[in-house]
Design a protein that fits this description.
135 residues, mainly alpha
């Protein structure tokens, strides 16, 4: 392997670690933001156990499940005994670019993400960070 390709693998690996960290923060902020809106419609969620159940089962939070699964996927690659390839890293970074597309006119998930960014300045900042990281 040339030093050039090992440098780009190191760089992709580093970006993936940063992406994972940013996406965890973003996911947590999105859950919190969605909880507030959910509670405006349905009333207070009485416990964190009930909230967890809703996140897993309720349609309201379904648009965030692919993000949860994606974070697990990044973990699997980063923690694998098999060395990560540049192709794997680039594929995950591409998947993140596709997943984190806010749009007023797009899919249901893109619209929900767009509204969360409009509603919450912290989410807007995190989105900007992720966008910068993904180039």
């Amino acid at each position: 392997m040339s030093s050039n390709s090992s440098n780009s693998l190191d760089s992709s690996f580093q970006r993936l670690r940063e992406l994972r960290s940013l996406m965890l923060r973003l996911h947590k902020a999105l859950l919190h933001s969605e909880r507030i809106v959910y509670e405006q419609f349905y009333g207070r969620i009485p416990s964190s156990g009930e909230f967890f159940r809703l996140v897993i089962e309720h349609e309201w939070f379904s648009w965030l499940r692919p993000m949860s699964q994606f974070i697990v996927q990044i973990d699997d690659v980063l923690n694998s005994k098999e060395p990560m390839t540049l192709g794997q890293a680039d594929e995950l970074l591409d998947q993140a670019r596709t997943m984190l597309q806010p749009s007023a006119e797009g899919t249901s998930a893109e619209k929900r993400y767009f509204r969360a960014i409009q509603r919450d300045p912290d989410i807007a900042l995190m989105h900007a960070e992720v966008t910068r990281l993904l180039g």
